Amino acid sequence: MSFTRQRLIVQRVALSVVCASALSGCNSLLSEGTSAGAGIAGAAIANKLTDNATVATGIGLGVQAGAKAALAYAQRKTRGEEQDAIARAAAPLAVGEVADWRVKHQLPIEGDAQGQVTISRLIGDQDLRCKEVVFSIDRPADTPQREFYITTVCQDGEQWRWANAEPATARWGSLQ
Question: What tens digit of pLDDT does each residue of 116-130 get?
Fold first, then answer.
């Protein structure tokens, strides 16, 4: 079996696990399903390449690590989309004003998100303009649920960005 064909098998298994897990809407199932799918794919590749148990284990662990890294990237991207939507909704608001925010995720690893945002106070001056915001995440259900959070957004040129370092900003990389 060629290396390209093996990569295709791994990608299909991983994609199948991600899609199946996404339908459930459960992050722990998504994480465990990705890990299990990567283990199966890694074993299939290793079985075709070698009879050496050590090499096979290395291949399996490598495939699993790659799948976990891909899932972590997708989850960070999803959170970033939500944070950008909240910052955009908060940008034109004055203290006490309320606006709706909504995001349709590019990667369907979890449901689209929505809620409301309000400004509780302004921070800084013309050179460093920031806003403390209170926002909700509204979860539709038989009995709708709301979760409330506080964060800070700051102006970066023409754009407003999420300012809290945890868990948002890309600069911290794997420390998130």
Answer: 999 999 999 888 999
Is the alpha carbon torsion for 102, 107, 108, 109 positive or negative? negative
Domain of 143? 92-165
**Residue 150 tokens, joined:** 């506080």
In a domain, 119, yes or no: yes
Split into its structural domains, the chain has a count of 2
Q: Are 17 and 36 in contact (CB under 8 A)?
A: yes
**Residue 120, in any domain of the structure:** yes
Residue in the structure block whose two tokens are 């309000």: 118
The least confident of 29-38, 52-61, 114-123 is 29-38
Please state, in angstroms and rounded to a whole number, the distance separating the CA atoms of residues 157 and 154: 10
Residues 97 and 135 in one domain: yes
